[in-house]
Amino acid sequence: MLKDLFRKPKYVTVKPDKPAPAKRDIPEGLWVKCSDCGEIVYTKELEKNQKVCLKCQFHFRLGARERIALVADEESFRELDSNLVSVNPLGFDTYSEKLIEAQETVGINEAVITGEATINGQPVVIGVMDAQFIMGSMGSVVGEKVARMFERGLEKKLPVVLFAASGGARMQEGILALMQMAKTSSVIARFNEAGLLYISFFTDPTTGGVTASFASLGDIILAEPGTLIGFTGPRVIEQTIKQKLPQGFQRAEFMLEHGFVDAIVPRQEIKTTLAMILELHGKGVANG
Amino acid sequence: MANTVLDFERPLLELEEKIAELRKFTDEKGIDFSEEIKTLEKRARELKKDIYGNLTPWQRVLIARHAERPTAEDYIKALIADFIELHGDRSFGDDKAIIGGIGRFQGRPVTVIGHLKGKETKQNIKRNFGMPHPEGYRKALRLMKQAEKFKRPVLCFIDTPGAYCGVGAEERGQGEAIARNLMEMSTLKTPVIAVVIGEGGSGGALALGMGDRVFMLENSVYSISSPEAFATILWKDATRAGEATEKMKMTARDLQEMGIIDEIIPEPLGGAHRDYETTARNIATAIQPHLEELIGLRFEELLANRYQKFRSIGVYQEG
Ligand SMILES: [Zn+2]
Prior knowledge:
The structure holds 2 protein chains of 2 kinds. By secondary structure, chain A is α/β, with parallel strands linked by helices. Chain A has 2 domains: 29-60, no CATH class; 61-287, 2-enoyl-CoA Hydratase, Chain A, domain 1 (Alpha-Beta Complex). Helices cover 32% and strands 17% of the residues of chain A. In chain A, helix 4 links the parallel strand 6 (122-129) and strand 7. In chain A, helix 4 (140-156) packs parallel to helix 5. The termini of chain A are far apart. Residues 6-23 of chain A have low confidence and may be disordered. By secondary structure, chain B is an alpha/beta fold. In chain B, 49% of the residues lie in helices and 17% in strands. Chain B has helices spanning 10-29, 34-53, 57-64, 72-79, 121-126, 134-149, 167-171, 174-186, 202-206, 227-235, 241-248, 252-257, 276-295, 299-311, and strands spanning 80-85, 98-105, 108-115, 154-160, 192-201, 213-217, 221-223, 263-265, 316-318. Chain B is globular, with a radius of gyration of 21 Å. The relative contact order of chain B is 0.12. Strand 4 of chain A pairs antiparallel with strand 9 (316-318) of chain B. Bound molecules: zinc ion. Residues 34, 36-37, 39, 53, 55-56, 58 of chain A line the site of zinc ion.
């Protein structure tokens, strides 16, 4: 139901029958127009500014690899479970092709990349979802990789940091995809019992089965400014209630106001904020 | 009986009406139609087997959504003695799309929770067509925690098109409410039995579905989304819902084959809406031995098994 929240990845621009590139993606050119303030920005400048508009602070979306580079210490990331690949369990036509296409164009195996890394020297298990990969949807592989992340954290007594970006459970895997919500939530319950820290970070956009499972279960829940966070996507709600939704509905600021996010953290401050939280949970537990 | 007649049921219903008419004639006019009645009854039996023995997934969806299909409330009436409904989430309100309470199942105190649809428009509006808001899931969780405290097994009846999508539901954290139920149910220290009795629609169904045993009534369905939403998302065409049901693998048999559910509970021929009593009895018969077995387990074992059950779901390749 959230399909149109997602911009088509860049590659579609070469296909004449597909819609124009998404406004929040950065086109290949030298210049880009900020979709929020309309300012024309030099692409290199934007990249240097972590893809945050220099004029209005609008946060362009990041791919999973870009996000890892932003948060993890240089050279510290060791990927886990990159050998897990999706199959087509229901024999759904076009799914296999879709997977291959996503792997080729997005350049990653699945909608989440997981691994171990350090953040300002502190070891963590980290996961980053990528909304460009079949809308960041959760099928068996995403569920399994997320579950294994928490198991790795349990085994090595490490905190977990997970950046969500997803349209929800992956339709093409049917009930198996839905059940990944149950799987990931069960593993987090165990992780919690061990007294370990889980920081969940919402990035644009996160909806559906990911909001309704692991992304909402962090000890601390953070979000980037302007991030869409919801269960049902805005277009479906508008169709259901036959009304236009107010400006800012389901954005991170709205979710903060309604008590579902601990803090909004601008991109430039993510790494230092995470490091601070990790440090606060590091040592000196009372009555240990 | 049934106000809503499904197209594929019509020939059978017409035949049954004819039989009833002949009976009335026999009684009122004293003319003997017993031979004709016998012939027609035989034909009705064959027709019934023919229709209900070869249901398509879409026909099952229609049966699962049938206006007269028994609801959680009907099964509570039939199976739970001394039922007392308990209301509210202690935080926001009382969601009427979910019914919950305590009572006795075969003499044993239990907590019962279920999605609740209405059977006609007025009731359906009151029950929001069985689509809960966050406070419904929070009420369910409150009652589950209460069951844990008093060591009562939990019996969940699943029957919802999905969690409600609307402004209030989002403002109050529909996603968070469902997520929390999943997490809490996975470690609830008391046996949980879930029965899909009608529509098992998406996360809104799963939020009551993390059972040690999960059952489905023969004509119930359980899926990632409604077939209409599925067709809209993948083909941008809601009218292809029937076709979607073929692809989605959402029938009880499909889910059993995929190892998602434990057992299929048979419905009387013609569907649950034609015989509430037998259906209720079939549910009781199916869950009773499992409940006994689960009650006999140590918590560690109960929880380890439940964990394994959901942890192991998924199909992928590890290359
Ligand atoms: Zn701007």
